[in-house]
Amino acid sequence: MFRRAVTALCYTAARALLALRPHVHRHLPSVRTAPLLGFNLDSRWSVTMTWPFSSFQPHDYSLPNPSWSPEMMRLYDHYNSLCEQEGGGKSKAPWVRMPSYNRLLKYAKGGQCLSKMVQAKARLFTRNMKEEGASFEYVVFLNKQEKMCTCIFQAGHLLEGPPGYVHGGAIATIIDTVAGALTTYLGGLVMTANLTINYRSPIPLGSVVLVHSLLEKMEERKILIFCQVTSSDGSKLHTEATGLFLSISLGHLIGG
Ligand SMILES: CCCCCCCC(=O)SCCNC(=O)CCNC(=O)[C@H](O)C(C)(C)COP(=O)(O)OP(=O)(O)OC[C@H]1O[C@@H](n2cnc3c(N)ncnc32)[C@H](O)[C@@H]1OP(=O)(O)O
């Protein structure tokens, strides 16, 4: 009985997690979790990014706030103009803005229980700073055709490493986040197995940079991603990285 209840919860949460992906209308790979937990998800299942849960609409942190600099806003407007517009019918625009919330599970139908099982107080650490602009301000745009993501990232004053510059761990975090968003779109549930980073030039604190993430190779469960962090005009290379992500089962997350 308990097993069946957990299975049902996991099923709902898996659907909810996948539904978090924005404007995805494509044939999804079957979810590895399904056979493990004793049910089947239709591999031809099509997903639409309307908020699938309750009437409560959580705060979307990828939308502009007053801390965003004019350069951040300029780039946001640029990429936004390349996106499918809401209510604009079947646009052929290849870009979509990826919404971003401070928790993945709490607001999902059935996910609330799973969230308690995983960890009731869990929060996405890039999205839980009270002061706007103090740490990670970012928005990720996905190009479905090119299988790439571009993130506009403004690094706040709490991300200092060397005086006046962004901490290497914070740079790794944003790279992992952007590459993770791309691989989640491509492969469902994933985890970073390996991240190799070359820091080429420091990122001034408070500046706006672009984080580009591109699919290199996809082989069964393995997804290889190439990343570059550049200045906002693309003239300066700050960081280069490669990441290996592995598709995992939901069971892997809950200790199965
Ligand atoms: C929206 C927000 C997005 C945020 C994204 C953030 C993403 C993250 O940060 S995830 C957190 C950090 N990552 C982790 O904690 C992962 C910890 N590691 C693990 O859980 C496991 O090692 C995991 C899942 C990566 C792989 O384990 P498992 O599924 O058992 O794979 P395993 O069978 O060992 O290996 C599968 C294949 O991958 C290869 N592989 C596994 N790990 C590595 C590695 N580190 N380097 C190279 N190859 C590897 C294996 O060699 C094997 O290859 P082959 O099939 O050719 O023999």
TrEMBL record:
Name any one GO molecular function: hydrolase activity
Pfam families tied to this protein: 4HBT (PF03061)
Cellular compartments annotated: Cell projection, Ruffle membrane; Cytoplasm; Mitochondrion inner membrane; Mitochondrion intermembrane space
The keyword Mitochondrion is annotated on this UniProt entry:
yes
Q: Which GO terms describe its cellular component?
A: mitochondrial inner membrane; mitochondrial intermembrane space; ruffle membrane
Which topology term describes how it sits in the membrane? Peripheral membrane protein
Q: Which Enzyme Commission number(s) are on file for it?
A: 3.1.2.2
Q: Locate the Thioesterase domain: which residues?
A: 164-235
- Looking at its record, which EC class is this enzyme? hydrolase
Entry annotated with the keyword Transit peptide: yes
- Provide one Gene Ontology biological process annotation: apoptotic process
What keywords is this UniProt entry annotated with? Apoptosis, Cell membrane, Cell projection, Cytoplasm, Fatty acid metabolism, Hydrolase, Lipid metabolism, Membrane, Mitochondrion, Mitochondrion inner membrane, Transit peptide
Catalysed reaction(s)? tetradecanoyl-CoA + H2O = tetradecanoate + CoA + H(+); octanoyl-CoA + H2O = octanoate + CoA + H(+); decanoyl-CoA + H2O = decanoate + CoA + H(+); hexadecanoyl-CoA + H2O = hexadecanoate + CoA + H(+)
Family membership: Belongs to the THEM4/THEM5 thioesterase family.
Q: What is this protein called?
A: Acyl-coenzyme A thioesterase THEM4
Gene source species = Scleropages formosus
